[in-house]
C-alpha cells in the first residue's frame, strides 16, 4: 500500500512540475511500464521523439511509426509546418477530419452533418485539408485520410487531449 502511495505522490509531483513549465522528471500518463521510453533511450540515448500506432479504419488496418532525434527536431525550420497546423486550426475542419477518419467518406454524408455547414462550406474546408495533406479525394465525391496521416493526426489529438 505504501509503495502505491509513494508512486502516486511521485507521479503527482512530476505532473505538477510539468504543469508549472519546469523541465525535469519523468511524466507518464496511464499505468504500466514505460516501454516506449525505455526503447527510445536504447535507440537514441542523446534524445528523441518517437510515435506510432496501429489503427483499424474503414479502409483497413494502418500500422505506422516515426521518430526524430531531438537535435533534428530543434534544427528544423518549424515555420514550414505552419500551413499544416493552420489547416487543422478550425473546429469544422477538425470535425470533418474526424468524420472522414470514422468512415463518413462522401461529400453528401458529410454535408448531412448539421455541424459542418453548406455544401460550399464543406468543399472549402475539404480543399484546405487536402492542400495540407490531411485528406485526399478518393474519387467521385469520396474522401479518405491517407494512411501516412492516420496515426499522426491521432497522435496529435492524443497530445492535445493529454492533461
UniProtKB/TrEMBL annotation:
InterPro entries: ArsR-like_HTH, HTH_ArsR_DNA-bd_dom, WH-like_DNA-bd_sf, WH_DNA-bd_sf
Alphabetic keyword roster: DNA-binding
GO molecular function, one term: DNA-binding transcription factor activity
HTH arsR-type domain segment(s): 83-162
SUPFAM superfamilies referenced in this protein's UniProt entry, alphabetically: Winged helix' DNA-binding domain
Protein name: DNA-binding transcriptional regulator, ArsR family
Amino acid at each position: 500500500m505504501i509503495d502505491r502511495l509513494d508512486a502516486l505522490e511521485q507521479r503527482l509531483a512530476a505532473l505538477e512540475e510539468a504543469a508549472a513549465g519546469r523541465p525535469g522528471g519523468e511524466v507518464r500518463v496511464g499505468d504500466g511500464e514505460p516501454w516506449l521510453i525505455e526503447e527510445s533511450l536504447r535507440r537514441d540515448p542523446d534524445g528523441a521523439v518517437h510515435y506510432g500506432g496501429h489503427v483499424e479504419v474503414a479502409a483497413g488496418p494502418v500500422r505506422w511509426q516515426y521518430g526524430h532525434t531531438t537535435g533534428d527536431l530543434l534544427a528544423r525550420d518549424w515555420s514550414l509546418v505552419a500551413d499544416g497546423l493552420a489547416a487543422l486550426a478550425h473546429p469544422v475542419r477538425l470535425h470533418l477530419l474526424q468524420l472522414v477518419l470514422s468512415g463518413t467518406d462522401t461529400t453528401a454524408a458529410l454535408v448531412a452533418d448539421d455541424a459542418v455547414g453548406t455544401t460550399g462550406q464543406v468543399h472549402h474546408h475539404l480543399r484546405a485539408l487536402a492542400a495540407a495533406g490531411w485528406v485526399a479525394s478518393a474519387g467521385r465525391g469520396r474522401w479518405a485520410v491517407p494512411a501516412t496521416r492516420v496515426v499522426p493526426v491521432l497522435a496529435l489529438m492524443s497530445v492535445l487531449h493529454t492533461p
